[in-house]
Input
Amino acid sequence: MTNIYPALDRYLHLQAQQQAIKAELEELSAQIIAEFDEDVKTLGYRNMNFQRCERRTYSYSEEIVAREQQLKNDKKAEEKSGAAIAKITTYLRVSKAESPV
Output
């Protein structure tokens, strides 16, 4: 392995910046949404459109929840039996080390 440490340091630095930026964007989004009039859904500014969007979510009956759970159980059974076909994706995961390396 070549000297990977500068890349690891840069990655951690950028990741910290990304988390700080994400937190600030969430705060700004809430501020901006609060300023929209109820009847206004889109605001144009500096050649960009800011849209107040809504997403509807549902809570389902116990019967539907039970059927979903049964489907999850059936999927797990196929995974164990080998009937399900696995797809492998390679990615980088970064997490806090439990003990210093």
